[in-house]
Write a structure and sequence with these properties.
With about 190 residues, the chain is an alpha/beta fold. The chain has 4 helices and 9 strands, in the order βββαβαβαββββα. The chain has one domain: TIM Barrel. Bound molecules: iron/sulfur cluster.
Length: about 190
């Protein structure tokens, strides 16, 4: 059984793509963009192992989501089992949004590409910050509408930051904010 190496799963979020979604961060990134916001996902060590079948069962047990978002790390470093996962959840009616640090033209054919509705491609370039579109860090990154499930109307969705406080007091943050917004939040914290 080919295992996935994962960094984190958030069962329901409004901050990682259009609508309510399950977000899955993979562990391991061979792209390694300078200035990446998630360098803790670069190493293939760490994270946790899960079969794609178990991940699919977990996601399909979540109610009220319209899809899954695959983030990195670099999802295409694990394109084989992630493609099987994506095909399974799509055949159950969920949409699949996948982020990659590669450009689509450089990706070899894969079930993961074939099972992705919305691909966000391209490396993070720290010197080209994205001025307006949600969920992406730099302006070179492209939204590739691979099926008719989504279109440019998704750009009206605002970026969100989600703060989750678990029963044990653990705090988790996900979503996307510009450096300016984060600095403004921290400034408010200091006052
Ligand atoms: S591809 Fe994503 S996770 Fe990997 S270095 Fe670039 S921004 Fe970071």
């Amino acid at each position: 059984m080919e295992l996935l190496n994962l960094h984190r799963i958030v069962d329901v979020t409004l901050a990682e793509g259009p609508g309510a979604r399950c977000a899955v961060w993979t562990q391991g990134c061979s792209v390694r963009c300078p200035g990446c916001f998630n360098p803790q996902t670069w190493s293939t060590r760490g994270g946790f192992s899960l079969s794609w079948q178990d991940l699919a069962a977990r996601v399909l047990a979540v109610s009220g989501i319209e899809g899954v978002t695959l983030l990195g790390g670099e999802p295409f470093d694990q394109a084989g089992p992630l493609g099987l996962f994506a095909a399974a959840v799509r055949s159950a009616g969920l949409s699949v949004m996948t982020f990659t640090g590669h450009v689509l033209e450089d990706l070899p054919p894969s079930l993961l590409v074939d099972s992705t509705d919305l691909l966000v491609d391209g490396p993070f370039l720290a010197d080209r910050p994205e001025p307006s579109r949600p969920w992406v860090g730099s302006a070179n990154q492209r939204f590739r509408f691979l099926t008719d499930r989504y279109d440019e109307s998704i750009f009206a969705t605002p970026n969100r930051l989600e703060l989750t406080i678990a029963r044990d007091g653990a705090i988790e943050l996900n979503g996307f904010a510009t450096t300016e917004v984060l600095e403004a939040l921290l400034e408010g914290e200091r006052r």
